[in-house]
Amino acid sequence: MKLDLNIDPKALGKVAVLMGGMSAEREVSLTMSGPGVLKALLDSGVDAHAFDPAERELGELKHAGFDRCFIALHGRGGEDGTVQGALELLGIPYTGSGVMASSMAMDKITTKRLWLADGLPTPRYVKLKRDEISRERCMTIPDELGLPIFVKPPHEGSTIGISKVMGYSQMLDAVNLAARYDDEILCEEFIDGPELTCPVLGEGDTAFALPTVRIEAADANYDYQNKYFTDTTRYIVGSLSEAQEAAIQALVLAAYRSLGCRGWGRADLMLRKSDGKPYLLEMNTSPGMTSHSLVPMSAKAAGISYPQLCLWLLSQARLDHVSAQA
Length: 326
Prior knowledge:
326 residues; alpha+beta; Rossmann fold; D-amino Acid Aminotransferase, Chain A, domain 1; Dna Ligase, domain 1; six-stranded antiparallel beta sheet; four-stranded antiparallel beta sheet; 12 helices; globular
């Protein structure tokens, strides 16, 4: 599907690019994603301005006459429904998913529950609460899920606080690391195979998936450093057969619609080596827009440039209540 790129930048009004924020991913948003989006919009002729919610009250958006916001925030306070709710109250349209979809997608456990209810494949898991952490309980989890296990804080992104546990002796340290970032801990079955990601643009029945990207990180460790600050990670577009690509895209669209996402998103998956079955890991509703980021890379393979992508996403900015009246 082709995007309608016949967009008048002046008709988009005064635009705030929200960047920075107060999450653990502030640095990436403030120094990479946000500036990249801002430059692309300015180069396209948009009246765009940087706005850091950690340094300015959101109410200033209204007082300063901003007409819409491009959310280039990552993590808590940026893609969890919080800033979306504030913008709803201010009546300022914004990019990406609405309050409910953003909130659900940011919670990896809630996301898994919804996908499982809709019959969509995701790795088996065990949830722990911080007050349930003990050596004895941690030692039982490998018996339930097998080894290796991924241990994650379910409300963080960008691989922050994540550990790959290879043996029983590593479990408690991994759980305690995740508990530094979250009140809950997600222990997830390891799926042996390549890691994939697939972006989606649009909403509902008209949403469509972009090309799938295969990720090959050094030592198979796609951590925070390898994601943003090294050039050793390989990203391969077009590595799947036509049938595999179609199946992955159909699954990702179902996952996107299951959460009620709109505007854009990016699903991360594992493709099990033994039988080629895909497993959904998470849905990102405010994906990275850095030089290493996967959505711009996939869009480029589909013939959509970075500035075109930013301009189109901005043109789709809206409010939940407008959607409800449509």
